[in-house]
Amino acid sequence: NLSPCRFYLHPELSNDLVGTHPPGAHSLVAVSVGYFLEDFVDMLCNQKLHQSWELLFHHSVVIICFGIAVLLHQYVGFALVALLVEINSIFLHLRQILLMANLVHTTCYRLNSLVNLGTYVVFRIATLAWMTRWLFLNRQNVPPATYAVGTVGMAIMTPMNIILFYRLLRSDFFK
Question: What transmembrane ranges does the database entry give (predicted)?
């Protein structure tokens, strides 16, 4: 059920990210909303606000945008593209686990740092750039309120991801 497979198996998504979605895609996006809600509540309960405000903000934007797709049964294809970003989360989370285990000076950490940066560029930065471009090119086909939510969402997510990329570079490569 990974998003790249969806686009390979359902090439019509590349033509219509608004009204077209393959079987199970709506459920995938709905489950993702549930995950982000659960993670949001967990962070509120178990972390200090000054440590988690960026992720809480990120999760709020995702919950709103994905929630619209789930409720309207539209933009599910666009949400699938957005889920490509989460492929990089595997390596971001592994990085955190390795940091907590004090394994920073290991080959595993170094290898993960390289894969993390590579997947960050491909699945976060390039995907967000593509989504921003798609939104701009299709603005005439998107209702103004939805276009506004999408534009604001992209305007929030893109700088957040660039800042995080800079922090990762500084932390893992330019100490």
Answer: 53-72, 78-94, 114-136, 148-169
- C-alpha–C-alpha distance, residues 76 and 81, integer Å: 9
10 Å Cβ neighbour count for 61? 18
Are residues 168 and 120 in contact, defined by beta-carbon separation less than 8 angstroms?
yes
Q: What is the pLDDT of residues 96-146, one digit of tens each?
A: 999 999 999 999 999 999 999 999 999 999 999 998 998 999 899 888 988
Tell me the Cα Rg of the chain.
17
pLDDT at 2: 45
- Using a 10 angstrom Cβ sphere, with 0-12 exposed, 13-18 middle and 19 or more buried, the burial of residue 154 is buried
The dihedrals phi and psi of 19, each to the nearest 5 degrees, come to -105, -15
Question: What confidence score (pLDDT) does residue 90 get?
Answer: 95
Q: How far apart are CA 5 and CA 157, in angstroms?
A: 24
Give Cα 145 distance to the centre of its chain. Answer: 21
What pTM value is reported for the model?
A: 0.82
What residue segments make up the domains of the chain, in order of their start?
A: 24-173
